[in-house]
Please model this.
Amino acid sequence: MTRTLDWLERNWVKPAYSGGVLLAIALCFFGAATNTMAGWLYAISGIIFALLGLGAVLAGRSLSHIKVSRRLIAPISAGDNITLELEIENTSNSPRSLLQAYDLLPSVLGTAKPTAIEQILPHQTQRITYYHPTQKRGVYRWQEVELRTATPLGLFWARRSRKVPAKAIVYPQVLPLRYCPLVDTIGREERLQNESDRRYQSATEGITKALRPYRTGDPTRLIHWRTSARLGTLQVRELEVITSGKEVIICLDSGAAWNSEEFERAVIAAASLYFYASRCQFSVQLWTAQTGLVQGNRVVLETLAATYIQEEKTTEIPLKFPLVWLTPHANSINTLPRGSCYLLFTNSTASFVPSDVTGNLIGLAIDSEQPLQDQLQRQVR
Model:
């Protein structure tokens, strides 16, 4: 019955509650007239049937000569509301009133609430704007907008669809990282570190970035004696390092088999690392299995919005450069070039992966139970 009524509403008209009640009354009068042969009963039933027929015809005709167009949908980030704008034009010589308009959104976005339109004058355009929440990043497409009305008598519902293609891009969330030791240390050779140490041998307090506890191997000239005496433990200065021009390639292993929740966290991590490296004036690029190397804020966000699990691999991993490798498989870490880093997305609660798996590479195993931002800002070794 539900499917039949839905088909009637889309292709002809569907009785409203009041129309159904009036139709039942008309049938009762007609049955009584047939049994009693009373003319006034025939007249009453005939008038009711005529009223029902008029309501059915006018409801269907009220949706004719209406054109629907759409304005471009601006990209947003996951968690924000999509702004949807429709322009409904009445091309007839008579007004159109009491309409409902709503998008047929993809199921993952949910169901859009209908927007009521009181009246559209002849040859006029009515613009409606509404907002729809989003929870998950992606590139969403849909094709139809539906118009619905029961005007003018409210006895029958009519619904017609219009082809209005739409494309909405929902970017992944970008975490506001204050610092990220994983990116800061990528590709740092011992020779470059020694040169950096000599460059800052005459450093003063003005370029000290932070203080941290002394670790074996730290140069003694970097010990901050005044703070060490006050705290009773050796404290070492961390100095600003010139990083401009450093090349960073963030690789998302999208061709692998992922847990869906871990993959979404990896996409967020990739976006966050990219923008952190960009703010640090690094020459940063993003690699995914299907798109290969891409660069530029908008292009990277669109690439991450569209990527999916086990996508087709069309380009090879750029193994000639140090990478930040985001993967669910620990065995893939061994193939990374020297100076690379990794983020391993597993269900493990360990902060570090054993050295027999990673060799001399540094990185983190991301714990799904802990906040991702805190883990990306964790010190690596």
